[in-house]
DNA sequence: TAGAACACGTGAACC
DNA sequence: TGGTTCACGTGTTCT
């Protein structure tokens, strides 16, 4: 009903312009002017609509409301960005202790391996005990489905079977990486009684097989 | 130079309206209408200017340019917020919740209970999401026989049954305390989807029962 | 000179 | 019934 009246008005003015030929008026340029102004208005309204579509959905369709809420929303976003980057900086400053390894892993994402296992001996200057050694075992698993719970459970149950290692401490994290895959990282500090035989490479390979098997099974189930 | 012509136009039209008295026209309401429209335009232009002042300083003063660059700037800010909060979440997940050692000692030392479970909500100012909350669950178990592996496994398997909580990070330690008993401490950072019902006390009690049951069984077995 | 941008007053529609 | 918002055509200035 609104569109119809607008079209009516337009045709009416067009008629008037065509009648102007009798009145010997330079309507040729006036018509261009009219059309240009019309185009300009359409373009402006278009921008108004697209801008409104980006604002929080409860916004009024008023032009004034669009402008003011755009202003408010913009300042709000700015404040969010400032606060987030500040918080981010704080977090990154506090991070160094253990996260560099994971950071390296993330940066080394060029490797397409879904599971990586590294085993490094901890040289503890405080207790240079000869009959037992301490190792840090880090397991990183990239997977869509595997949850950290299953991963930790599997590793711990495997560890219980190995009778000359005991768990000192354990740290596990999970976070999103890229589009949809998430990264599970587990770091275990192990005390190894050196009395019996201890094959470092074999142990590491066994852990790798356990985790890879878990990933395969989970992918199969879902 | 522009202002002068505008003022001239205004006075001219005012004169025309006053002449309308002779023509017996109801110009009383027309004048109000005119003034209202004028006010509306001023207000709108004001909003345009204030909006432009918030945009990057190189912006054209065109109304169309203001609208389009506002749109672009807004989407850019949105993307920044999304990326920052994502990065922030990664950092927070990787940050061990170990800043409460003193708090742990206090909670563990005051009570003679062999198992203590504390659940504290993490107020994250960076991601104030309403539909999900973050909790730190700390479980401390004094026992002679129970190894940390069993404790972690039991807690994680219980957690898998609760379907609206997911594990963000996990930290476990064990150390000697006093003569022969050792202390196992597990701290879990949990994300709780607030959609369903969430009884904090019930959850805490359930965890306590699970761990206490584990301790009893292990003592019986050994 | 052509074209873009703006402010203006006015009629109409919606509450 | 007024109050508010909108689209329209037009005149003017700047490039």
Automatic annotation (TrEMBL), chains A, B:
Its main location: nucleus. PROSITE patterns: BHLH. Residues 28-77 form the BHLH domain. Pfam families: DUF7049 (PF23132), HLH (PF00010). The keyword Transcription regulation applies. Gene3D superfamilies: Helix-loop-helix DNA-binding domain (4.10.280.10). Keywords: DNA-binding, Nucleus, Transcription, Transcription regulation. Transmembrane segments: none annotated. This is Putative transcription factor bHLH041. The lineage of its organism: Eukaryota, Viridiplantae, Streptophyta, Embryophyta, Tracheophyta.
